[in-house]
Amino acid sequence: MISLSAISKSYRQGNDNYQVLHNINLMIKSGEFVAIMGPSGSGKSTLINIIGFLDQNFDGNYAFNDVVVSELNRKQHAQLRNQSVGFVFQNFKLITNQSVGENVGLPLLYAGMKRRDIVARVNEVLAQVGLPDSYHKLPKNLSGGQQQRVAIARSIVTKPNFLVADEPTGALDSATSAEIIALFKDLNSHGTTVIMVTHDEQVARQTNRLIKILDGRIQSDEEVNHANT
Amino acid sequence: MQIRELFVSAFRSLVSNKRRSILTMIGIIIGIASVITILALGDGARVAMLKNLQASDSGQQSTEINFAASGDSKISGFSDDDLNRIRENNQVNKVSVQSDDHGILSADGSVNGKNINPIVYLTSRANDDHLISGQGITKNDSLVNNPVALVSQSLAKRGYRSNRNALNSGIEINGTTYTIIGIISDDATRGSYNNYDVVVPRQVFQSNNADVSANTLKLTFVTGANVSEETKKIAEQLNSSGSQHNAGSYEFFDMAAMLKGVSAVIKGITYFIVAVAGISLFIAGIGVMNMMYIAVSERTQEIGIRMAVGASQQQILWQFLIEAVMLTLSGGMIGYLSGLGIAMGVSVFLPFTATVSLSTFLLAFGTSTAVGLVFGILPAKTASNKNLIDILR
Ligand SMILES: Nc1ncnc2c1ncn2[C@@H]1O[C@H](COP(=O)(O)OP(=O)(O)OP(=O)(O)O)[C@@H](O)[C@H]1O
Ligand SMILES: [Mg+2]
Known about the structure:
The complex is a heterodimer of chains A (229) and B (393). Chain A has helices spanning 44-51, 74-84, 100-110, 115-128, 144-156, 174-189, 201-204; strands at residues 2-13, 16-28, 33-37, 59-64, 67-68, 85-88, 162-166, 193-197, 209-214, 217-223. Chain A is an alpha/beta fold and 229 residues long. Chain B has 13 helices and 15 strands. In chain B, strands 3, 4, 5, 6, 7, 8, 9, 10 and 13 form a nine-stranded mixed beta sheet that branches. In chain B, strands 2-14-1-15 form a four-stranded antiparallel beta sheet, covered by helices on one side. Chain B has a two-stranded antiparallel ribbon with strand order 11-12.
């Protein structure tokens, strides 16, 4: 489904070019549950933003289901973002002055759906993430774990091909983290591909594949052995 | 995204910042309101002017030439010869002398303390033409010099608010007080176009007014004639060879020229106000731009989130542009309504009423939309050009 070959990325910092990613080659198949780990500043977020269609400025070739991502114009890129991927951020990224339901329904609004149909679908996914009857609540009245559930509901509302999560448990305590990871696991067991950046060994061990990144290069890429845990 | 949704979300973000939105709108409101006020008044003045100049519904214009005798003599300034000579002028459609010969003349007077200049019809017989309420003048009233009068409904209203109050009250005409016994309709006429407001017995009027030979010649011109020019010529001709040119003078009050002057003044005022309003709208536009820039930077996170879930650059651009236009347009519409209100209020004290026209509405609508577009486009561009990665970091 996802095929990265020779991906490089550098940022301009003043007059220098600072290269963050060096020649990344990576294949991810539909249905996988992938964890990406690495020290701070190693380029995990940079990589995952490229995979999740947030960033179009990179060198190399990214093919997504036969679509060559780097050849898309900005509008098509935005459309791909809307339809094919769900993004979950560390700090939830909810619009604070809109209700939970409106936040979750936002991708559907941009997909051109009618308001009436959106409400039904939003209530469906809210129930799926364990927050039924919270359509009209405001995000600020929810706990961190609940807000992250809202963000996950938003990411799956368009039934995307895969989810990308950048440290989704980074702002949560360990008990809440476990709940969120269980939710991802559940989604994955129903066929959703999940790619997740994490610092937490415990969290990474729940996935099926662990990719380690160091200084913008893939250091190791192996299956997670569940027998030890 | 559906277009309706763009409007809904723009509306909601304006409402969620009510105070700021209203403050930003004030400049637009003032600008539009002042333009609409002056245009509505100017239009009203123009319409009133045309009405004044026109004697008939068919667009023919009429003028008057007055004969003022030099002494106190009761002479008629216009003989049949004069009239016939004027009739030869093919620009002139109709010529008639309006004087007491026809029983119609204009007079000074007051009703319940308010000054009036009514057209008075002097009747020698019983008269109850166009009577609405009360009773007509009887033959007996004329015989016994009974000072009674029929007055038009608008005069009755002017003096006494209602027809009923007016009945049996007084009206003063040329120094004589008459008792109002009947109310006639406002469109009461004698012959084809001689409007009148008041009817009194001729005997009573004549015994109280030494000089009733107010000599007025009413000229009606064919459509398209140069009314003032022709009237001036006729007046000059009368002064040099009219039947009474030795006994007094023929005077022509050039209404058209005066109205032209008035309309030039109004035009000048209009330009001035439009210029002031233009500056006000420009400053208001800058205010809108400022507010939109603030909104864009305050809502950077929201923009990032919207982009991350699939909003295209155009959709972000439209969101902020529609917000700006909605702001200026609501300001414009409020300004339009207050402008009309002010114009209506002011015209109570003026001899004409303000007019509402589609074109001023479209002007308000168009201008405020344009201000929103012009001053909203740059902030909206800024919003849509934001770098998603930078926002989300
Ligand atoms: N927009 C940017 N402009 C310039 N440099 C950037 C930008 N984004 C990231 N970088 C640099 O690229 C490097 C990699 O950043 P990245 O966010 O991918 O790291 P990370 O692995 O996600 O780290 P962390 O675990 O702390 O989130 C960092 O050194 C960072 O300073
Ligand atoms: Mg990171």
